[in-house]
Design a protein that fits this description.
The protein contains eight helices and no strands. The longest helix is centred in the middle third of the chain and has 28 residues. It starts with 16 loop residues before the first helix and ends in a 16-residue tail after the last helix.
């Protein structure tokens, strides 16, 4: 007990649905990492990505659980609720990606040269990764804003969660751009890259301002209006990029509408261009949905971390 009669440890970190979800994240993350390092194995850029995603999420969950259980989050100059829901949403996306990539490249119908035990471990890793996705998704669902709430952090709203997805999709686009996309061939495709980078920076700025409790830094307008203005600009920019990129990559005058027959798998510029075109449209749809939801929400974000959960 402290001098004011409060408890040192937060019982709700264990005895609550949110605490149970985080404990499941820790258990499943530990199981995945242990099985991969013990026998399932990983190799190549795909395996390294999966292992990095699982390790990052596990480390983040350990830190979040420890700070929540000890009330030490109150010492941080951030909005704790906004920070945790943002991390949970990002971890959900990482787990979803790893749950698709790992079995696609490492789980085969036949036993590998190392024996069937390796295959069984890889199947178990995939199952635990899928369950981990559900655990992180459960945290997002538990923290998400509900209709009728008087006070709500922006990142807990649908619009705030869409910001996380938009940033994640932008990272996929950047990865494809770096993989022999040949974007520097035309000024129009360079313009698209500038659009992707600018929108990513603006989205990241909104998330950082919210998590750090600096929403009042915008002096000329309210923060929710600032978010709407930025989202409208991003919708217009992504609309232009979603049209310009396919034209200058797949039109017969500038590129090829069909995949070249001699283009190697995994190292083909045409494949990267398709990925960028698809996810450009995906992000455009996400920004449109974000703009619609931004018109309907009102949220409160303060400079203090959050209300005590004791």
């Amino acid at each position: 007990m402290d001098s004011q009669g409060g408890q040192y440890l937060n019982k709700k970190a264990l005895c609550s649905p949110l605490g149970a979800a985080r404990l499941c994240q820790l258990a499943l993350g530990c199981a995945v990492i242990a099985m991969v390092t013990h026998s399932a194995g990983y190799s190549g850029s795909q395996g390294v990505f999966c292992m990095a995603a699982w390790s990052f999420c596990f480390a983040m969950s350990v830190v979040v659980f420890f700070l929540d259980a000890t009330h030490l989050y109150s010492c941080l100059p951030v909005s704790w609720d906004n920070l945790t829901v943002t991390g949970a949403a990002f971890a959900t996306l990482l787990y979803v990606t790893a749950s698709v990539v790992y079995p696609l490249f490492f789980v085969q119908s036949e036993c590998p040269y190392a024996g069937c035990d390796v295959l069984y471990f890889r199947i178990a890793v995939t199952v635990c990764s899928i369950l981990g996705t559900l655990a992180y998704g459960a945290e997002v669902a538990l923290c998400r804003a509900r209709p009728g709430q008087a006070m709500v952090g922006y990142m807990a709203t649908v619009s705030g969660l869409l910001k996380v997805v938009q940033g994640f999709v932008a990272c996929i686009i950047f990865g494809a751009l770096a993989n022999r996309s040949e974007y520097s061939r035309y000024a129009a495709t360079i313009y698209c890259v500038v659009v992707y980078a600018f929108c990513f920076v603006v989205t990241a700025l909104v998330v950082i301002m919210t998590v750090c409790g600096r929403t009042k830094a915008v002096r000329c307008m309210s923060f929710d209006r600032f978010v709407v203005v930025c989202t409208l600009l991003e919708v217009l920019l992504y609309l232009s990029a979603s049209v310009v990129w396919p034209v200058f990559c797949f039109d017969t005058k500038y590129g090829s509408p069909w995949r070249p027959s001699l283009c190697p798998r995994g190292r083909c510029p045409w494949d990267s261009k398709v990925v960028i075109a698809v996810f450009s449209f995906v992000n455009f749809v996400l920004y449109v949905a974000d703009l619609i939801y931004s018109q309907r929400i009102r949220f409160v974000s303060s400079h203090v971390p959050s209300i005590s959960r004791a």
